[in-house]
Amino acid sequence: MLKVKDNVSFEKLRDYGFKPMEEWGEDGINIYPRKGSYLIFMMDSDEGGVMYAEDDLPMCYIEIDPETRRLWCEAMPCCTYHIGGDELDIITDTIYKMAQDGILEVMND
Structural domain boundaries of the chain? Predict the structure, then answer.
């Protein structure tokens, strides 16, 4: 499991597109992150805002837990629609950039 290093401030996560849930300004996002979590979502390029699957679930996102600093990645299929390829770029590209910048480490638990 990957985590943000202890010496990295949560404000630094904004450089990668993360922000606290309450700042996303989306009504009806059907997830319940821990208070203080920072998140980044797959965005809908046609309609703007977060891209949703069924039941108002965001299609693809990363959450960083404020206590453990662990990254939680989620991808939600929609009916028979699958998630893959460049749709996972929000996860793969973000983690790659964070790793390149040296702010991630592997948790051994």
Answer: 2-106
